[in-house]
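Why do we care about 3D structure at all? Because function follows from shape, and shape follows, mostly, from sequence. That is the central idea of this module. The next example makes it concrete: a single protein chain, its amino acid sequence, and then its structure expressed as tokens.
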Amino acid sequence: MVRFSFSGHELVALAAGALYWPARKALLVADLHFEKASWFAQFGQMLPPYDSLATLDALEALTARFGPEELWCLGDSFHDPKGCARLPAAAQARLRALTGGCRWTWITGNHDAGFTTSCGGAVMEEAVVDGLVLRHEADPAEHRPELSGHFHPKLRVTVRGRTIARRCFVATPTKLVLPAFGSLTGGLEPHHPEIVRAVGRGAEALVALEDRLLRFPVAA
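And the structure:
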């Protein structure tokens, strides 16, 4: 793990697509999109129904590794406001075990706006924690340092004729966009116009490996 500084705070970008905040013993994830496959199934588009279980597996591994005191989900945790209720009973039990193990906060996003959870944890539209704004979508007019999700940034590079795609963080001095943590999510290139609009020019794409943090300038 490699620590880096963001607006005076020491953070750790994780290869799994999460962020660890050592000073608060906090984990942050974005865009879990629980029950995305079951949402599509309601409209006749059948996808393998294992996305929520895979995302739960990854969350459980992360919490077992770090033992966080806080866990913040930065929006679109469920693919729609009724996603929590659609989780199978066994998956709901696993999720409640996670939310009951630390101070768990769901920040709502555009997909799950207005949801009330029966899976534990507190629900908020946004929060300010030690001077950092936590919200789902970056606000171009926000001048305070901000952590967000929404855009699912993913860097694609060509190496020896092969295209490799990796989840990435998008960072400026005051904005840090997390990649999607969910197992059934696509991704936008970090130079996509909507990401540039949200964070401004001069950003970097950060690709986290276990032993290093790769930085790529974002051309805009």
